[in-house]
Write a structure and sequence with these properties.
Shape: globular
Number of strands: 4
Structural class: mainly alpha
Largest sheet: 2 strands, antiparallel
Strand order of the largest sheet: 1-4
Number of domains: 1
Number of helices: 15
Distance between the termini: 21 Å
Radius of gyration: 19 Å
């Protein structure tokens, strides 16, 4: 499958629907979709007052802003490691990592060539993680590789300019997915029983984050932004499971509830992510039919913030040590 396919966002939808139709471990409860959509509509889509967003970049000149968005999205993964990383007081693992990177960039600035030389030892210092000879070191090496690969791509193909990388997308989110798909940590395509299932969580999120950073103008203007799918991670499916939209196989549910890690790219992990994406599509259709239209991107934000409530935190969500979320 070519990352440059202009229909890539539609292919994400089609393949996720295919997985949902044939899934053996994760199913959508059709009797819950409409009532849950009505509940979201009654709650104004259920989006709470938002805390400060460490992934939002609105300051600095355009080059700096684009670079901050892309580098933040380059390390916006590691949820499977968060139980063991050192967190900042009062912050989740994800927010701790994003805040640490922002602090580093504020101190040192952003230079693609220097980024391309980043090492695991550098990452441990930047993100405030002591060496453990185990999963934390593994995550820091993965962060360093993701950032170094991005820096090398920007230096090699885009004259050292993050804005030039964004310009190569030709104003479409699908185009940005194609550009970022050159990087291994953005090549988010699962193999499900021999079928390639593109999910592209972070590549799609990069388009959404650039749009927010630039107010939908200039480098943040993407003509197909409304075609983004939900961002396939482990929190949105968890919310849908807790609220009854998703039903997990009993053994899978017991494994997750026991805190056992899922293998990245496994059938179970792929079905959770892909069926979650399709469930958001069905909820958007229900909301539109009832006069409350929204996009999958917006509904993803709704569900993601919803997942911060105590009732969702009280139940384990699935964890996988993946570079994709």
């Amino acid at each position: 499958m070519a990352g440059g396919d202009p229909r890539i966002l539609e292919l994400v939808r089609e393949r996720c629907a295919l997985v949902a139709d044939g899934s053996s471990l994760v199913r959508i409860d059709p009797d819950v979709v409409a009532p849950f959509a009505a509940r979201l509509a009654a709650e104004g889509h259920g989006r709470p007052d938002e805390p400060p967003d460490p992934w939002l970049a609105t300051a600095g000149d355009p080059e700096h802003r684009a670079g901050l968005v892309l580098t933040l999205d380059a390390v916006n993964f590691g949820s499977g490691y968060h139980p063991v990383v050192t967190k900042r007081p009062g912050m989740s693992g994800a927010v701790s990592m994003a805040t640490a990177w922002r602090d580093h960039v504020e101190r040192t600035g952003l230079d693609a060539d220097a980024l391309g030389r980043l090492t695991g030892a550098d990452a441990r210092q930047i993100f405030g993680q002591p060496a453990d000879g185990g999963p934390v070191d593994e995550l820091m090496e993965r962060f360093a590789t993701a950032l170094a690969d991005l820096g090398a791509l920007v230096t090699r193909n885009h004259d050292g300019s993050f804005l030039e990388l964004v310009a190569a997308a030709d104003g479409t989110a699908a185009g940005l997915v194609a550009v970022l798909d050159q990087l291994p940590s953005f090549h988010d395509v699962a193999d499900w029983h021999g079928v390639a299932v593109p999910l592209y969580k972070r590549a799609q999120l990069a388009a959404a984050d650039l749009a927010r950073a630039f107010g939908g103008t200039g480098p943040g203007r993407f003509t197909d932004l409304d075609r983004l799918t939900a961002f396939a991670d482990n929190l949105v499916p968890h919310v849908l499971r807790v609220d009854g939209v998703l039903r997990y196989d009993d053994d899978l549910a017991a494994s997750i509830d026991a805190g056992e890690l899922l293998a990245p790219g496994s059938v179970a992990e792929t079905e959770i992510r892909a069926v979650g994406v399709h469930a958001v599509e069905l909820l958007c259709a229900e909301l539109a039919a009832s006069g409350h239209p929204t996009t999958p991107q917006e509904l993803d934000y709704v569900l993601w913030f919803r997942g911060g409530a105590p009732r969702y935190k009280a139940i384990p969500r699935h964890r996988a040590r993946s570079v994709f979320y």
